[in-house]
Amino acid sequence: MWRRFGDVAYALLVLVVITLEAVPLALLTWTFVQRSAGVVPASRPGAVLLSAVSSAALGVILISGYILGYHGMSARRERAVRERLDAWTARWMDVLVGRAKPPAGRLPREAAFALLDLREVVRGDEAAHIQALAERYGLVQALLHRLSSHRLSVRLEALEGLAQGRFAAAFDAVAAHITDPDPAVRLAATRAAARTLAAIPSGLEREGAAGTLARLLEASGLPIGVIEEALLLLEDAAPAVLLRLIVRPEAAPASVKAALDAVGRLKLLTFGEEVARFVDDPDAEVRAAALRALARLGYIPQEAEAGVVAALADDVEFVRIHGTRAAPLLPEGAALPALREAAGDSSWWVRRAAAESLAAMREPGVSELRKVAAEHPDRFAREMAEQVLRDAGLLPAGVDRRKR
Amino acid sequence: MGTILAIDDDPVVVKVLKVTLELAGHDVRVAGDISEAHEALEDDRYDLILLDLNLPDGSGFDVLRYIRETLNRPTRVIVLSGLKQEHNIVRGLELGADDYVTKPFSPREVAARVDRWLGG
Lengths: 404, 120
Description:
The structure holds two protein chains of two kinds. Chain A is mainly alpha-helical.
């Protein structure tokens, strides 16, 4: 509130200062024009100039004083708020461990924030206790009420509070804002809904919420990175949403790509076969995401092996790069020839990825890489192999391309 | 009962740890960043350290390495971090952490683990 009114006051002050500068300058210019025409006496421009300088100095003093005062007051207010928050955190902790009774009556603003801050860091019995306290003081309803405010900052603050609180009862209301016209609200609502879903225990309620979230994520039009972040925030609840995003035949490529990346990052090994289906997807971004996910999972299901080998000869460079990075996970008999071939790729990045993959395979990958460095018909393949061997400290002492 | 150093920049986490562990009879000191942690570790000896990994001036892994390699102390270290990925947990344990607890955490669980490592 202070900052909002402080900003309004600052805008008005800037207007006053500009007026203090502009009006005297205009007057000064006009006086010089009049003096040139001989309409005013010679002493007049000097007097007006002195007034203009004084007015400008007043403007500078006003704005400097305001800025100093504003920051000083802001710092003092923030310190006071922090102290009240600390005091309330201590008081709530005493309540949680049974050393004090919950406060009577309506909660002050800092008390509510302190309770939400606590809810964010604890789980288990204490989290359940905080949940009960939040319900007792009507905190969820208050946040939901603020969620319908016409002011963006109030809605964002409410979403942040609901994200901290992770109240299952608020999930539907929060999720409904994932398709809000304002992108900032969509982003905050997506994060809050994901964190809330993560706190819902497994069961029918979680399944229902997972279905809602998957549907809304697809409809939200949010960037892929935001969808992926939300999927990662889901923690244990991620599989329920991911399955819905990946399995649906009509799922949008952007959602599938985000889901595949989340599968890899969360190392959900049980999704290996689902990921394998996308290795030869018509969309290059999806193919690359599937290959990236397999590399992160650390295994390639048998049905995806042919697809990974084929990816090394894909028309799209970044698909070949990700295929090359996943290739060491193929059976040795398939990986070595595929990587040897990729080591002579026309793309520097694919050659580099192939050489690094061979080096990462240790034996027999390193032997194969030495062979590439010595015998590959393509000069660029030989040089890349030698460079990677050198970078990995695998080049025998004394070997130098210049001497060969 | 022991002397515990909580290295964490989140005042709420610190408050939860202080109240919970002091109630269990431990003496809890606090360091909010790596430089404070270094000072605290040089000045005093602790029975157990609770270590966050995301600190304002660097990574908790560096503090862990400092404890194990530079100070060469066998002090018990429990990592208390929001980083839940397997590779972070493995790295923490490889660098010498005795235990790894992820945030959000159960205060009672942390107290029980502290008691276990202190032989309480």
